[in-house]
Amino acid sequence: MNKQLIFIMTDTTRKDMLGCYNPDMHTPNLDALAEEGLKFENTYSCQPVCGPARSAIFTGQFPHSNGMYTNSIAMGDNVKTVGQRLTDNGIHCGYIGKYHLDGADYFGLGRCPEGWDPEYWYDMRTYLEELTDEQRMASRKPESSYEDWMTEDFTYAHRCTDRAVKFLEKNKETDFFLTISYDEPHGPCLCPAPFNRMYEGYSFDYNPNYDDDLTQKPLYQQLWSGEDMEKPGSELNKPSSGLALFLGCNSFVDYEIGRVMEIINQNYPDALVIFTSDHGEMLGNHKLQMKNAACYKEIANVPLIIRGGEAGKTITSPASHIDLVPTILDYMGVPLPKVLEGKSMLPQIYDAEQEINDVVFTEFTRYEVDHDGFGGVQMMRAATSEKYKLVVHLLDSDEFYDLVNDPYETINLIDSPDYEAVRNALHDRMLQQMNETRDPFRGYQWAVRPWRKDKEPSWENDRHTRQRENEEYEPRQLDYDTGLPMEKATRLKETNDVKA
């Protein structure tokens, strides 16, 4: 039997924007997928901003490892995507939709990267080049959604779906990995009727974090909030044309996903189907908009649905985008490279009682290299378990939440003596992960926090040398002291001498 995997993702879909997580939402096709597969409640983005999030999704390495720690910076030349790895193992790979990994502007370079079939390549620049100048400008205006000329076939989502359907119709007898990467519902949220007005008058249910005054939170969050700091939660959580169009576009992309699922259900009933989104959107929660260096659920806790194993179950243990590439390779029968920083989820997909992670990690370094704003550099590392969340801001104050008793993340317990043991244990896990993944920004400053009295600054940090093992594509690295191939990639330093 052929191995066939369809990976579907959207841009900026909060978990509570799917009906299977929030019954107010109209997403019947993704809801059906959840009923037939596994729904994950606690999946976290590796970095809640477009490019870095996608870099982890498609390489299996954290942004700090693959080099794309902000938008508009390309990954390292020696970093391989899952498409490259599968293609080199005889698996046909198609990528249709937003890419955001080539270091270009928002729309991309319009060139198919290594590892993907050029016949199906269709990034956002490719789409824009099909349009006249007037159509391009109209495609970037939300108000175009209300024009009489706005039809389904004008949208990027529809054209991506058309190409996905062609791929599925032509590759029935092959092993393949197909990615369908929608830009929707990301702004400008283009969608035709009836979706453009489907959510008029709607607002999310009120919860206490709309009135989070941020006085116990990092300073940068107060700066990020700006004028919203002074607004009551009732004003931040009210119906608006912007929210209505955003949610309408979300339902529209579900409709387009439904066109793909119709073909999959007919021709590929045994295929593995994965759906997720790169990150969410604050939408006024915690008096914040968009996304940035935070690990709040609204932006970091993303939807994840997987069909192809157990059906109709909900997974509450932590999950992470870092595990998607190992899962895809494992499903395709490709050995997992040492350079990957996650684990295969296949055991859990086939047996929902299996736990893959007890803690998952999220980071942030910078939002957008092309812009002076968005706070500039904001160094954040976070560790999340099913019950607790620790967020360390290198240049600011830190956060700790009891997710069971404070699900809306309003009470910062970073200095609470009642949580010292569990907080410190989660902190130790975070430091360990930074070291083991060779985080280039690691150092004693992450360990020596005002609330961590037992930590002392150390020049040697963890006193290990950690070299890269990417031996499917590179020769084994050499030991600095011998010039010979390293015997162990990770080894304790034998001397404190500084060598030139």
What does this structure look like?
- The chain is built from 15 helices and 14 strands.
- Mean pLDDT is 96; it is low at 496-500.
- The strands form 3 sheets. Strands 1, 2, 3, 4, 5, 6, 7 and 8 form an 8-stranded mixed beta sheet that branches. A 4-stranded antiparallel beta sheet has the order 9-10-11-12, with helices on one face. A two-stranded antiparallel ribbon has the order 13-14.
- The termini are far apart.
- With 500 residues, it is of the alpha/beta class.
- The longest helix is centred in the middle third of the chain and has 27 residues, at 241-267.
Topology:
Elements: E1 4-11, H1 28-36, E2 38-44, H2 50-59, H3 63-66, H4 82-87, E3 92-97, H5 124-128, H6 133-139, H7 156-170, E4 176-185, H8 219-225, H9 233-236, H10 241-267, E5 272-277, H11 297-300, E6 301-307, E7 313-315, E8 319-320, H12 324-331, H13 346-350, E9 360-366, E10 377-384, E11 388-393, E12 399-402, H14 420-436, H15 444-447, E13 464-466, E14 490-492
Parallel strand pairs: 1-4, 1-5, 2-7, 2-8, 3-4
Antiparallel strand pairs: 2-6, 5-6, 9-10, 10-11, 11-12, 13-14
Helix pairs in contact: 7-10
